[in-house]
Write a structure and sequence with these properties.
The structure is a single chain. The chain is of the alpha+beta class. Helices cover about 30% and strands about 30% of the residues. The protein has a six-stranded antiparallel sheet with strand order 5-6-7-10-9-8. A three-stranded antiparallel sheet has the order 4-3-11, with no helix packed on it. Strands 1-2 form a two-stranded antiparallel sheet. Strand 3 and strand 4 form a beta hairpin. Helix 2 crosses helix 4 and helix 3 packs across helix 4. The longest helix has 15 residues. About 25% of the residues are buried.
Length: about 250
């Protein structure tokens, strides 16, 4: 639906009502704003036009635009700054941190330690399906460690599509980021919108036992995460392991 058709239909019915496709107009505008952020490759902190400008462009009321923007604000995509206007929301890193805690529910962000290995290869079948890759598309497989304040390590395997993260291993090793999603956005223009996780206890294999300083077949905590960009595209498949004897996964809804 074009902005011109939006203006003509706005004269026939309330602009909160469903349009020709049966989609509420504020949701259509929300989609248009999101598409603009994606297609123009706007980064967090970049300014957006005023709500009044969007209302004029799409031929709807200011209230309809505000309803669309409110939903993007709730999703951490857009932020309103008093007296300054609309911006692509700054990254709220805590929202994407693993909820791995130590004794006394102590939250900690483990620091970058080292890149153990990195190579470009064709994905395995589960990886290709999770990341919705076409035949022949390659991924980086990066194994790295992160260090907690008490000296214990977390082992991480990252599977990343080459098309989104060119030259990833070199940049990762050079910049050594603690906040990996900010690194994705600043270096590659890939913003993380959402994720899903699976957590389970597993028995340590030889590699995990070596890095996590535990015995073979000791219990370790395994966290699998698939991260999604603004448009819902899966951009990262990460698996993390840590020692289950000293850390656990905390899920809180307060």
């Amino acid at each position: 639906m074009s902005p011109d058709s939006m203006r003509s239909s706005a004269t026939r019915e309330p602009d909160e009502a469903a349009g020709a496709e049966g989609v509420p107009r504020y949701r259509w505008i929300r989609g248009e704003l999101l598409k603009r952020i994606i297609e123009e490759k706007l980064r967090r902190g970049d300014p957006l036009p005023a709500e009044g400008q969007f209302a004029k462009q799409y031929g709807v009321s200011l209230g309809t635009v505000r309803k669309a923007v409110d939903e993007l604000v709730a999703l951490d995509i857009v932020s309103r700054v008093q007296g300054k206007g609309l911006f692509v929301a700054t990254h709220r890193s805590a929202r994407f941190m693993f909820d791995l805690v130590g004794e006394g529910d102590t939250h900690e962000l483990p620091e970058f330690d080292q890149v153990v290995s990195a190579r470009l290869r064709l994905p395995e079948t589960p990886e290709r399906k999770l990341l919705a890759l076409a035949p022949g598309e390659k991924v980086f497989r990066v194994l790295r460690t992160r260090r907690f304040a008490d000296g214990e390590l977390m082992l991480e395997r990252m599977i990343l599509p080459e098309k989104f993260f060119p030259d990833f291993p070199r940049r990762l090793g050079k910049l050594r980021p603690t906040l990996i999603y900010e690194f994705y956005e600043q270096e590659f223009g890939v913003g993380i919108m959402n994720y899903e996780e699976r957590v389970r206890a597993v028995l340590a294999d030889a590699e995990q036992a070596r890095f996590l300083a535990c015995k073979l077949r000791d219990a370790v905590l395994k966290v699998e995460r698939v991260a999604f960009g603004y448009d819902g595209t899966a951009v990262e498949f990460r698996t993390s392991w840590c020692n289950a004897a000293s850390r656990y996964y905390l899920c809180s809804r307060r």
